[in-house]
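Hi support team,

I submitted a single chain yesterday and got back a structure, but I'm not sure I'm reading the token output correctly. Could someone confirm the output below corresponds to the sequence I sent? I've pasted both exactly as they appear in my results page.

Thanks,
R.
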Amino acid sequence: MLLAGQTDPAGLAELARGRLRAKEEPDRHRSEGDSSEMTPPAGGGFMGRDIDDVASDATWNRDARHETATERLDRNWADLLQELRVVQTGVQLLTGLLLTVPFQARFADLSDFQRNVYLVTVSMSVASTALLIAPVALHRVLFRQHARQLLIGFSQRSALAGLALLAMAVIGVVVLIFDLVTGRTGAVIAGVAALVLFGSLWGLVPVILRRTRTADRRDRTAD
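Hi R., thanks for writing in. Yes, this is the structure output for that exact sequence:
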């Protein structure tokens, strides 16, 4: 029996344990994130790990950014939207200008080769526009479906395909213009130069930097 003013040691211990559990519970949920967003990757492939496996560098994100898997997905989506805003303006302007070309007076003077180049270029520009805007449509359809990981994976691939088609469309415009102004030889030279430029800046350099970065991370992990 306890006298007035005395406390039960067992009760105090139980109270302390309860408070500790209450404090640890949010941290546990925060570290685990949303289990629906933590599905393992469906397969390998180029950049597949970072797209589909949210937990692939969860340790680094937790230590360096102090973010959960869900917070990382939100950040990835925000970054992707900023990038899409930059490229969407250009591809929309290019597509709009190309669609007005047949209504110009000199369009009837184009050779068969120039017409074919124009049609291929318009097709690639329209397809690029569709791919680069597709993430917005998908986001509307999947709104409040808790499918952020699926959305980011699709949008990543859609953006890469859209950028590739955009580069080809610009190269087509370059070939068409140089063919009209300087002739076939100048068009071939300009087209090859544009292909090397886009292939290097949009393809080769990013892949080299990515592989170098991946190798550096692998070496640090091994050490």
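A quick pointer for reading it: The chain has seven helices and no strands. Let us know if anything else looks off.

Best,
Support desk
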